[in-house]
């Protein structure tokens, strides 16, 4: 499956999603590793197997094995961290913020790729997962590393588009339509 296959499967009610996916696919503002790692990490965060398969196919030959692993690691570690830190942030009892997380997160310190790419992927996944504390943390690291606000915004835009693709495909799926009848 490819991005073109996904575009063809997006229902007409989500024409804007299809157009945004086209725009995202042709975006050349990011370096190749940054872009394709972002596509893979955010696809995984959508939890839609078709979206994941399409983005992994798009990334094939464009990402090194280490970069593909790092993109998957960003999605996996943020799945854990976003739940934990969203809880810490939202809980009325602020004692949780003083407690050690006791979660292994070694991959963040040594992701196997450029740290700014990993941080950007982590930020985009955190946007999908809705963790403001993680968004703030990753944005701070990126800005300190000299990454522009425009690049950060592009990563979050990619995340938003990826999530909308997954939703459009799920809502438009024949199985879901049949279940609604």
TrEMBL record:
Tell me the ranges covered by the Carboxymuconolactone decarboxylase-like domain, including all copies. Answer: 95-169
Q: Which reaction does it catalyse?
A: N(6)-[(R)-dihydrolipoyl]-L-lysyl-[lipoyl-carrier protein] + a hydroperoxide = N(6)-[(R)-lipoyl]-L-lysyl-[lipoyl-carrier protein] + an alcohol + H2O
**Coiled-coil region(s) at which residues?**
none
Say yes or no: keyword Cell membrane present.
no
Q: Write the Enzyme Commission number(s) for this entry.
A: 1.11.1.28
For this protein, the record's Gene3D superfamilies field holds:
AhpD-like
InterPro entries in the cross-refs: AhpD, AhpD-like, AhpD_core, CMD-like
An example of a GO molecular function for this protein is:
disulfide oxidoreductase activity
Classify the source by domain of life: Bacteria
Q: What does this protein do?
A: Antioxidant protein with alkyl hydroperoxidase activity. Required for the reduction of the AhpC active site cysteine residues and for the regeneration of the AhpC enzyme activity.
Q: Name it.
A: Alkyl hydroperoxide reductase AhpD
Q: Which gene encodes it?
A: ahpD
């Amino acid at each position: 499956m490819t991005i073109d296959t996904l575009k063809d499967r997006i229902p007409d009610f989500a024409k804007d999603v299809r157009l945004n996916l086209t725009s995202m696919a042709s975006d050349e503002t990011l370096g190749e590793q940054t872009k394709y790692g972002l596509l893979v990490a955010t696809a995984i965060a959508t939890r839609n197997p078709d979206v994941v398969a399409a983005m992994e196919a798009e990334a094939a030959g464009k990402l090194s094995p280490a970069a593909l692993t790092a993109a998957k690691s960003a999605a996996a570690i943020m799945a854990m961290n976003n739940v934990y830190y969203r809880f810490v942030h939202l809980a009325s009892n602020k004692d949780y913020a003083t407690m050690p997380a006791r979660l292994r997160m070694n991959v963040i310190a040594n992701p196997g790729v450029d740290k700014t790419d990993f941080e950007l992927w982590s930020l985009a996944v955190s946007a999908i997962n809705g963790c403001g504390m993680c968004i703030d943390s990753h944005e701070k690291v990126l800005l300190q590393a000299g990454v522009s606000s425009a690049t950060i915004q592009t990563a979050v835009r990619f995340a938003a588009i990826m999530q909308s693709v997954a939703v459009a495909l799920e809502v438009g799926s024949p199985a879901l339509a049949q279940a609604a009848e």
